[in-house]
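General statements about sequence and structure are easier to judge against a single worked case. Part of our work consisted of pairing the sequence of a single chain with a tokenised description of its backbone. The amino acid sequence and the backbone structure tokens for this protein are reproduced below.

***
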Amino acid sequence: MSAAGREVRECYRALAKTGDNIVGEVLRDQGLFREWDHYPRDDVYDPVTHAQFYYHAHPAGQRGWAEHGHFHTFLRPRGMPRGAKPADVPPSSELVEALPSEKPMPADNLALSHLIAISMAPTGLPIRMFTTNRWVTGETWYQAADVCAMLGYFVVDHTRLLLGTQPVDQRDVHILPATDGRVVARPRSHHCGSAIERWRGA
């Protein structure tokens, strides 16, 4: 994990030399920034690892802790650890259409899992992590242990926004011990806030 942390710092250092940051790289050449829209357009999706993410922002009155916006990270079934299966909960009616991607997804790759959302400050630095209720992302829920295992499989390894995405990948893996408790708490309740409070009190 220390190597991952060093890689994160090195990427921030390189971006800072030109006055840039991760969020700026994601929004580069994307036109007018609109609340709720996904950035980059159609998300970033790795067809080999099946990791996916996007950046967006809520309206100013709905943002917490002075964030600019946040990244949502996902893993699709073809990139999940062997044996990972959806939890025994009612399916989400929003599953198929919730997330766009660069290419249509095969039926066996639709049941994606939301991993972690990363809040970003206006300075372009990460300030907080959180999980979501399922209706927010239209995801499929998996057992907590499976979701924790998925964190190590989240890698985006292609040239599209490679510099900007690298810290997102490595940050997810780097904070695995802190993330573990948070994800484990989530399936106990469909209310994200109470899950986060349980994690904080652990």
About this structure: The chain has one domain: 2-175. The helical segments are 2-16, 22-27, 134-137, 144-150, 162-174, 176-185, 192-201. Residues 2-16 form the longest helix (15 residues). Confidence is low (pLDDT under 50) at residues 94-98, 162-177, 185-202.
